[in-house]
Amino acid sequence: MKKIITAVAAVAMATTMFAADVAAQVRMAGNLFNLDADSKVRMLDVTNDNVANHKPALSLSVNGDKAGASVKYLNTYNNKDGATNAFALGAHSLWFSPVDMLKITLGDTDDAINQEHIGWCNTDLKVEGYGFRADVNVDAFSASLFMLAGKANNDNGNGVYNNYILDDGKLAEVDVKLAYGADWGTIGALVQLKENNDKVSFGAGYKGAAGSVSYFANAMAYMNKGNMSNIHFEADVATSIESVGIEVFLPVSYQLGDTGTQWYNAGWHKGCNYYAEKGALQIGTLAKVSMPVAGLNASVEFSSNNWLDKALAVNIKPGIAGSCGSMAWDCFLDMNINDGKFTLNVPFSTTINF
After folding, report:
1. Which residue has the higher pLDDT, 82 or 193?
2. 164 beta partners
3. What is residue 206's predicted lDDT score, i.e. its pLDDT?
4. What angle do CA 39, 335, 116 make, to 5 degrees?
5. Which of 160, 206, 197, 142 is nearest to 175 (CA)?
6. Residue 168: pLDDT band by 50, 70, 90 thresholds?
7. Quick check: helix, strand or coil at residue 164?
8. For 227, how many CA atoms within 13 A lie in the half-sphere containing its CB?
9. Mean pLDDT in the chain?
10. In this structure, are strands 285-293 and 281-283 parallel, antiparallel, or unpaired?
11. How far is CA 141 from each of CA 100, 105, 146, 155, 178, rounded to the nearest angstrom?
């Protein structure tokens, strides 16, 4: 708690010394009701819901014309790893711009060629990690260089970061992202070299719009120790018909290598085991429909990791969202069927921005 108070005080001091835009957010989340696969019932839980820094309990940012910083704190009170502190430092970064066309970022980075807006974590063609980043922007062209610390266990996206980007002559991760935008849309490309080039991925994406319809497509390939491991395709279409918003995200993967050679970035692969077999095809779906109802925003989300999985997993999540003064809130009926077993959650979240 002392660290959080110190961070808030530092932000307040920065606003008095420099002309800067300051933003802060406090978020609390939990479950009103939970029915697990063993028919065990739980009620009224304020729980850990950080989703890998995407939904922090507390976030602070200070941004000026030439420099800025952001820091996130995660709720670890109910952490299954046995953490005893109520808060832990999450994603944090600092950026500065020595000249107009150049921006340097130190710390956490999360950047995608194209991003779906339903789960916000399911796109594969992206860079995510901790280290150094340099961005150059010249008119409609942009280039980014990433030099990131590796992870102790990178095959499934878990594990802690190593201390060094270059360790005993071996590079943990180097990525290059290029993009060009014009009236007809934006094209981008990404090359990733991981674990001293043992793991290589490369891909490209395009996004455009036609009237009220926006869309993108990504294609990428993965190599593991010189052998082609996977090929992957993503397509996303979003539109609005009067007051109804619709988005559909379709990811498709094909396993070329043997079991255990695959590696991915996106969260939609989690909980799916069939794709790991050589020659396996994985087809997922993520869809959302939303519309205003009686002053609230009603929505329904639907997802499946893989329609071809031996243990089919389907999620249906209707919900509502609204506000109470400066506080935004949402509540959902989260229904899951996984390998014939049914679970039910009623999650909620409350957020205040100031």
Report:
1. 193
2. none
3. 98
4. 145
5. 197
6. low
7. coil
8. 12
9. 81
10. unpaired
11. 14, 19, 17, 33, 8
